[in-house]
Amino acid sequence: MAIDQYVTQTYPVECKGRDEYGNEVLDSPLDVKVEIHKRPGSNTISSSVDDCPHNVGGHGQRCKASHPDVYKIEGHGVICHYSFDIPYAFDPKK
Fold it and tell me: What is the pLDDT of residues 15-57, one digit of tens each?
């Protein structure tokens, strides 16, 4: 089944941010919108969390809630649990 149109869906979520161990860090959750996208001619499904003040990185793939004054910690930084590119998110890390 070919989908030859742009498909997008928005989901409201409450997020408390994450630290490098996956623990929630904010006292009160932030109301953010997660947009899921599928472009025509592509097998990639991606998401974006553009309205989160803690979301950073070239693809919005990192969370700074646990370290707001430092751009990135522990090498690649803390991964945002709502920002992804599938199938790349599941590719084995080399």
Answer: 999 998 999 999 999 999 999 999 888 888 999 998 899 999 8
CB of 38 closer than 8 Å to CB of 6 = yes
Query: Rounded distance, CA 84 to CA 27, Å?
Result: 25
Residues near 21 by Cβ (< 8 Å), separated by ≥ 6? none
Residue 77 · residue 62 · CB < 8 Å:
yes
Q: Coil, strand or helix: which one is 67? A: coil
Residue 77 — φ and ψ, nearest 5°? 90, 180
| Beta partners for residue 7, in sequence order | 38
Rounded CA-CA distance 26/6 in Å is 34
Q: pTM score, two decimals? A: 0.77
